[in-house]
Design a protein that fits this description.
- InterPro entries: Homeodomain-like_sf.
- It comes from Methylobacterium pseudosasicola.
- This is Transposase.
- The chain is an all-alpha fold and 126 residues long.
- Among the domains are: 40 residues; 45 residues.
- The chain is built from six helices and no strands.
- α1 packs across α2 and α1 crosses α3.
- The longest helix is centred in the N-terminal third of the chain and has 14 residues.
- The two termini are 49 Å apart.
Length: 126
């Protein structure tokens, strides 16, 4: 993702656009005409030309249900993702994919892997 223009440049363009036209100010500072027009509109609407935060907050739609999921795991340690997904659907009406559920649990280190019993080595310790 690209970086926003500096606040200094934004302020200089807006100051120049107040004295001349927006298109002339854009040409003078080497920014696009639409950019200068957009900055002037932002100044009129919000009172500032500062760049807005980029991106979005990385929230999961499972965040409000974290305690419910932890309770499910405490009740049955080896519960499967499919069972968790079915309980979420039945009790809360929330439909999620297995990948979403797995990523949510993995980010919180709530994963559990069953260990299959392996036969003891006849040769010795391995």
């Amino acid at each position: 993702m690209g970086r926003p223009y500096s606040l200094d440049l934004r302020e200089r363009v807006v100051t120049a656009a107040a004295a001349t036209s927006r298109r002339q100010a854009a040409a003078r500072f080497g920014v696009g005409q639409a950019t200068a027009i957009r900055w002037m509109a932002a100044l009129a609407a919000t009172g500032t030309v500062a760049a807005r935060p980029q991106g979005r907050a990385r929230r999961s739609k499972l965040d409000p249900y974290e305690t419910f999921l932890r309770t499910l795991i405490d009740e049955k340690v080896d519960i499967t993702l499919e069972e968790m997904r079915a309980r979420l659907q039945d009790e809360h009406g929330l439909t999620v994919g297995l990948g979403t559920l797995w990523a949510f649990l993995d980010a919180r280190d709530l994963t559990y892997k069953k260990r299959r019993p392996t036969p003891q080595s006849r040769i010795g310790w391995t």
